Amino acid sequence: MLVTQRQSPFIFADRLRLPVAFDPAGLRDDLERIANATWVDHFVKQNYEGDWSVLPLRYSAGATHPIMQAYSDPTVTAFDESPLLDHAPHIRGAMAWFQCPLQTVRLMRLTPGSIIKEHFDHDLAAEWGTARIHIPITTNPQVEFMVNREPVAMDPGSVWYLRLSDPHSVANRGTTDRVHLVIDCTANDWLTEQLAAGT
Question: 100-134: string of b/e by CB count within 10 Å (b at 16+)?
Answer without folding.
Answer: bebbbbbbbbbebebbbeeeebeebbbbbbbbbbb
